Amino acid sequence: MSELSRKLREIYRAIEDSGLYINLNHDVRFHEQKEVPLNLNETEAIVLAEESYNSPLLFALLTAVLRNGTMILYGSPGSGKTTSAEFVGAFVHGTLLEETFGDGSGDCKVMEAIHEATIHGHQELTEEKMLGRPHLGRLMRDGEEVVIPRK
């Protein structure tokens, strides 16, 4: 096991073991071992795996390390998107921010950055409407296409 792999597992386990992030849906499994029946007629079963992970938390952690923290989290309400981003940001970048700003509030700065970067939308809105809107006055008057960013 590489050093990076070991450290990522340690961070994942630390976040999960903290008890502050609770999501029992471990939908990513590696090295599946056996299927155990849950009832007497064996119509329902559970698969026991050597390693299992919660996908929002795992993918947020991997993205923070591998893609410079840029990712789109999509899912139903309550599936752990925001919580995953907050915990991973605090664990991965919190120490760096504390060292940079020197005031010991690295986690708060990470949370502020996450909330500022979060785009809230609606299923009927287009990406353009969530990110900004055209300046219709300039478009009509000058023929200039200017986008007014979302605040």
Task: Please give a structural write-up.
- There is one protein chain.
- The longest helix is centred in the middle third of the chain and has 21 residues, at 81-101.
- It is built from 6 helices and 4 strands; from the N terminus they run H-E-E-H-H-H-H-E-H-E.
- The strands form 2 sheets. A two-stranded antiparallel sheet has the order 1-2. Strands 3-4 form a two-stranded antiparallel ribbon.
- It folds into 2 domains: 3-118, no CATH class; 126-151, no CATH class.
- Helix 2 (55-66) packs parallel to helix 3 and helix 3 crosses helix 4.
- The protein is of the alpha+beta class.
- Residues 95-102 have low confidence and may be disordered.
Quick synopsis:
By secondary structure, the protein is of the alpha+beta class. It is 48% helix and 17% strand.
Characteristic key phrases:
48% helix, alpha+beta, 151 residues, 6 helices
Assembly category? single chain
| Helix/strand order, N-terminal first | HEEHHHHEHE
Give the low-confidence spans.
95-102
Indicate the overall shape: elongated
The side-by-side strand order for the widest beta sheet comes to 1-2
Mean pLDDT: 69
Portion of residues in helices?
40-55%
Main beta-sheet strand count, sense and barrel state: 2 strands, antiparallel
Total domain units? 2
Tally of helical runs? 6
Q: What is the terminal-to-terminal distance?
A: 45 Å
Beta content? 15-25%
Structural class: alpha+beta
Please count the beta strands (DSSP E, at least 2 residues each): 4
